[in-house]
Amino acid sequence: MRPEELENQAAYLEGLCNTLVAGAEIEREEIAEKEAFRVKIEQVCRVAISEYERKHNGVEHFPPPSVELKCFGSLSSGFATKASDMDLGLVSPLSQPQPDAAGSAIPRLIEKAFLDLGLGARLLTRTRVPIIKLCEKPPERLRLDLLEEREKWEKGIVDIDHADGVDEEEFVDVEPSHSKEATDESTEDPANSPRNISSLTGSSNEPRMPSIRQSENQSLSAYYNVAKRVLRKLGGRDITLSNCRELTEDDYAILNRVCEAFFNGLRDLELKSRLSNYQSLSFKPSPNVPSHRSLAGVYAQMEGERIVMLCETDVAIASAEDAEESTRVLLSSWKALQNQPHFGVEPLTYTKQVQLYLEKLRKLPTVQLLTLEQSQHEATTAYHARTLKILSHLRPRTDDQAEAAKNFIVDRYISGIWPSSVRIQVREFVTNASDVLDLQAVARRHKSLQLASELEKALEHQLYDHSLETDITEYVSILRGPMRKSNAQDPHYGHVIPVTRQNIDVVKRMRNIQDPSKMAVNQPRDPYRDKLEFPKNGVGVQCDINFAAHLALHNTLLLRCYSHTDPRVRPLALFIKHWAKVRGINTPYRGTLSSYGYVLMMIHYLVNVVQPFVCPNLQQLGPPPPPEGMSPAGLEDNIMCRGRFVGFWRDEAEILRLAQMNQLNGNRDSIGQLLRGFFEYYAQNGFMSTYPGRGYDWGRDVLSIRTPGGLLSKTEKGWTGAKTVIEYRPNAAVNSPSTDTPSAPHFSVKSPIDPPTPTIADTTAQETASPVPSKAATMTAHKNGEVKEVRHRYLFAIEDPFELDHNVARTVTHNGIVAIRDEFRRAWRIIKAAGSGNFSEELLKDAAAIKEEDEKSSYIQLLDEIHGWELFD
């Protein structure tokens, strides 16, 4: 790369950063406003806790000043931007039990005190630690909803479908499904039936067969999910790559019984009969040969055989001739695999083979047409386009069957429409039509009826302005009205919803309204958006109150000390935080990374990658860890906190003094040069162009800013596969904080699904650890508290500076890491192009704005598709 290109790239980034920081930096007035609110609510907390301690714990002289709301996070670390929310940690060292202890009444007590003042307050209990979300000026509707939610809690009413706010620990990827069976009608989940939980053990010592039954309208995939839940509730686990060497004979016994129950509960008798003829699914004991199975493998066998049954039906449509022969070979290989006699010797390998063949079957164009279904909330245009793509690989089986093939295609398209109400209307339209309709006309009718249904839902929920309701109601009638054959010689627009001189004005006005399909009522339920969600603007100061912020306060001070080491650190961190935000990759509960994670990525780069370094390693310059086994009682708070070593060089005044004298580093690179290197480091893992060493290896490396060199391996940390931890947290001691009841203990147990993750004992926490409870205890724990599975992912690994067993990036899912890495590669591509004067793409282009523009364009295209371009009389 030529020197002038490097200069141009650095200058481009320098200019962006200077402009951004000038506009994004938080104003002093905003900081003062937030501080005034903090002081106000701190006083509320002091009064509430002091009164509680006097009345219920008998502490007559409880000192209110001992209760503090300490600011941590970006506002305190120096990395805050405009409109940053305030993070506060409630500290009450004299309270027993501590506010963050399991069963403590203080979180609910504080929530009620805020609500009584007219503030908007909501306690989130399913987050990693209890948090109160608070806003200064809630809209009246939100305030009443929050009061109603509090009242429900006091009465012991638990809404299991309620999101309970942002739960970043339970985020899961939702794979798109093209099955409508599970969504057209509600089905009972047999896994929720008590008999399925107890039937394996019963009263005798002899194991029993669990009972699972596929209901009438339940898809095979939904039925498989039921079986997985039953397996978990029975204390079993399926075979995975991470646990295959650990499973005992008892584990296999439970797994095999659930697999057999899963098979026995199949509703399709023909499918069940065919499968039972295969040796791998006969469930008859074989002498001297293991018959171990995986639940995932049995499901794949069921799904694959269902597809084979469809392939063997006589239909009027087929693939190309050469593809037909390969299909016959594939079906023959599938059947041979099912009859493999030694399937149970290596069940994981066998499962992988079955899944591989299943994927091959699913990719057959004929199969894709035979199983064609519109997934829930899939756009009609996307469903139609998917159908056309499948048809491009198919042909009539014979020339004489051309007409039959067309009819079959239309029938398959209609049969796959979701929801059933629209499917019935489209079917009636085709049945009553005087002309023979092609797929284009049927799809256009589908689109008009679906749009009408979405508009009606939006009107029902009053999502449009009242002034638009008359027009929208009239437009719905137009969409449901008769189609007309076009007079224009355009084969694409054979039948359309006519635009006439009488309705043209209404149709034009509809082009300016919001797309109803993007409104919440017509979208999948978002567990992170509900009626209790705070608006982003117009509610005054917003903050989160954390009841376990002790380590977070040390983390914040560490980041603040790093910001003091060099004046370039702060603008660099602000730039990266803004970039991640506008590109939509900084939302942990949606599977990406928190802003804190991006700041740690920048610090790692400035400490360990840049040569010479910009920041010294403050943890290496701090005091050494205390000798192992030494009691934490005699150690200072700046050495140990809750069993964690928190030592680092924390003399802010001295760090600032040395930094101002340029004595902390010898690096004189510009901000633009540093940003260029940052994006290069994370965008590729080849050799760097301006610094020694290679780029970051996302698959193997763990970022560890405490460690010399800044990197550990995932193998070294034991972070090589996802792990599930089952946690039980009791509810607050009572529903009403006014009752004096001793708090219940908290226990955390490792799931049997995965091997344990090493943890460091918390020697000062009020929570008490318990050994693994009995299955009965686990199953009934939810009656007095909450049991949840917390998924620890290591696709991206950032070690917390103090909680060494905590992966800051554990919320990052598969889709999340793909998005993050794609954005780094996109940024690096744009930066390289800027070196040669190519500025055709914006580095900081708002991804949300692009999405909004695309959605508006798609809506206009849909209207054009429905109405065509002809004006009728």
Please count the helical segments: 29
Mean pLDDT: 86
Uncertain parts: 160-206, 732-783
Radius of gyration: 31 Å
Structural class: alpha+beta
Beta strands, count: 18
Strand coverage percent: 5-15%
| Portion in helices | 40-55%
Major sheet: 5 strands, mixed
The quaternary structure here is single chain
Straight-line distance between termini? 65 Å
| CA-based shape | globular
Strand order of the largest sheet: 1-2-10-4-3
Tell me about this structure.
Residues 189-216, 733-742 have a biased composition (Polar residues). Keywords: Cytoplasm, Magnesium, Metal-binding, Transferase. Residues 21-146 form the Poly(A) RNA polymerase mitochondrial-like central palm domain. It comes from Colletotrichum chlorophyti. With 873 residues, this protein is α+β, with helices and mostly antiparallel strands. It is 44% helix and 8% strand. The chain contains 29 helices and 18 strands. α8 (220-233) runs antiparallel to α9 (249-264) and α19 (469-480) packs across α20 (504-510). The longest helix has 29 residues, at 28-56. It starts with a helix and ends with a strand. Mean pLDDT is 86; it is low at 160-206 and 732-783.
In short:
The protein has about 850 residues and is an alpha+beta fold. The protein is built from 29 helices and 18 strands.
Comma- or semicolon-separated keywords:
3-stranded antiparallel β-sheet; 5-stranded mixed β-sheet
List the helices and strands and how they pair.
Blueprint: H1 3-24, H2 28-56, E1 68-72, H3 74-77, E2 86-91, H4 106-116, E3 120-124, E4 131-135, H5 140-154, H6 181-184, H7 194-198, H8 220-233, H9 249-264, H10 269-276, H11 295-311, E5 317-319, H12 321-338, H13 347-362, H14 365-370, H15 380-391, E6 394-396, H16 402-415, H17 420-432, H18 439-460, H19 469-480, E7 484-485, E8 495-496, E9 499-500, H20 504-510, E10 542-546, H21 550-565, H22 569-582, H23 595-609, E11 640-641, E12 644-645, H24 652-660, H25 671-683, E13 701-703, E14 711-713, H26 714-717, E15 723-730, E16 747-750, H27 775-780, E17 785-792, H28 814-835, H29 847-867, E18 871-872
